[in-house]
Amino acid sequence: MNERVKIVEVGPRDGLQNEKQSIDVETKVGLIERLVAAGLRHIEAASFVSPKWVPQMAGSADVMRRVPAAPGVHYSALAPNLTGLQAAIEAGCKEVAVFGAASESFSQRNINCSIRESLERFRSVAELAMSEGVKVRGYVSCVLGCPYEGPVAPEKVAEVAELLSEMGCYEISLGDTIGRGNPLTTARMLEACLKRLPVSQLAGHYHDTFGMAAANVAASLALGVRTFDSSVSGLGGCPYAAGASGNLATEDLVYLLQGMGFETGVDLDKLVAAGSFINAALGRSSNSRVALAMTA
Questions:
Q1: What is the reported pTM?
Q2: Which of 82, 126, 181, 192 is the most exposed place for a label (fewest CB within 10 A)?
Q3: Mean of pLDDT values over 63-79
């Protein structure tokens, strides 16, 4: 039996949050239903932030209450503060995500505090979540470059990842927020993290701004990483990245993994159909090269 790779589908949250157009609850739930039907088992479905700041995430509580309850399917949501965590718990969420940056400049510009200050803010969120039986996942942004200060030291990424682990995060997602990484810088970053944390605790989250996301996945696989975040149809885009390219498309990730002999549990045809569904709602074309090739 082929070795299994875990895919964390972030399109319904990280993807849609960065699309200019807001999508109604019905359509969000319809997308999630199709992703589940395609075989995805880890889906980031919502974000419990104020709709005032992120209008695309309005209705997150309704989404969490309406997602299909299927055996082996796990849903998560972003919960950046205690208010958001409480709302997530009330909506039945069993896993939440908190985040830190590997760049001091990005942390100051994004949430107006230092990296350590931001992590201290999240500590109370993590502690309360775990006391309620809710799992906590950690995100680290700017692991392969910052829009304000350029290259980021691998040791800094490892330090932040370790702090999130000590806080109680069971898994750490390493995000190339502006998509500047390549296989060499990816490997160096991971090697630094592996000196502090086991490979089973690390996940790759690579943006495709310079077309390197799939290559960075391959470099990560060579070092033993077996969990990756991706977004159906390549939904989303980082406002800090040249070209605003977003996450690696899940279709492209699945095609790569299956071609390398890994098991994903995902039906690629159904996944492409899920991408077509949300693209029709957004009035846009797919950012997945695989989906475009399969539907040409």
A1: 0.95
A2: 82
A3: 96
